[in-house]
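Next up, a specimen:

>
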Amino acid sequence: MHPEISRRRKLYHENQMSAGNDISAGATPTFRYCIASTPRSGSILLARMLAGTGAAGAPREYLNPLLLRAWSRLNPGRRLSLGAYMAEIESRRTSGNGSFGMKLHWRHVKNLLARNVPETVVRPLLMRQEKFIFITRRDKLRQAISYHIAESTGVFHADQQEWLKDLGAAQPPLSPERALRHLADVLEEERGWTDFFRRSGKPFLHVEYEDLISDYAETCSRIIGFLGIEAASIPDMTPRMEHGGLPERFREEVLKATGIRAEQFDAA
């Protein structure tokens, strides 16, 4: 990853956690929901759509280690307690109708547990979310390739694509082996959420990336209806092509490494 991109990412995350992005002060949610996601599944597009309604809070990855560190940089000297931190975020990011949303990859849950945050703290945080939107992607190989490219460049969001052009940064070398490891990561994260829903019985709506892209308005209407919020309109969030079409070109290389021809994979 280019050093300047690392610097810009830090600033980007600090901006996400700054008071300038708050939508409330001292609010208490009456409804909480979570976008349960895996990397490169369209969850950012979904979160921005929901935030754009003005009736679904400001869902972001508040438990992402990068955002937690950004909060700590913005609050030097303050001890990070998960319960107090989430109460503060809820007070600042709850919409006027009482809705609070967050976005969470399963690896963020695993990260908290790995940092010795007790399960007795993590599980209640999940259980207090009243509804979940579970977004996945049918084409796991394209998802894994997109994940690999994002990790290699440090560019995860569409509005960060210009960084690579600004810097004239060369594309880091891509590895079919690493892409396949990311495929295993995606499958593991998806299984983590599936197991959670099975054990917890929490209500969730399963949405797939491909449907969000191909039938945006209908899929968004279904999501808003499931959450039970009233939105005046569905924000126009037209997606951009991922990494300039590079995933499609690299896909052939990954398939070649596995010994699978593209037509065989697509037929399966």
Remarks:
- The chain has a mean pLDDT of 88.
